[in-house]
Amino acid sequence: MMLPKDKKLCSATLPPDVLRNLLRILPELTLDQTLWDSTNQSIPFVTRFTYIIYHLLVLHVGPITKFILSDIANLGNYSKIDNLVLFLSRNGIQHLVLQFPKDKPYILSSLFFTCSQMRHLSLRYCSVQPPPTFKGFSELVSLELYEVTISSKILENLISHNLLLERLVLQISSILDHIKIDAPKLKSFDFTGNIELISLKKVPFLVELLLFNTVVPSPEAGQHYFTKYFESFPTLEHLHLDYHSLQFLAAGSGDTEAKLSSPLNYLKCLCLSYICLDELAELSPALCLIRSSPYLQDIQIKIEYVALDILVVPVSIDVVNEIPSSFSDVTLDHLRSVKLEGITGTKTEIEFIKLLLSKSPVLVRMLIQQKIANVSAETRLKVVTEITKFPRASPKAEVYYNSGV
Question: Which InterPro entries does the UniProt record give (predicted)?
Answer without folding.
Answer: LRR_dom_sf (IPR032675), LRR_FXL15/At3g58940/PEG3-like (IPR055411)
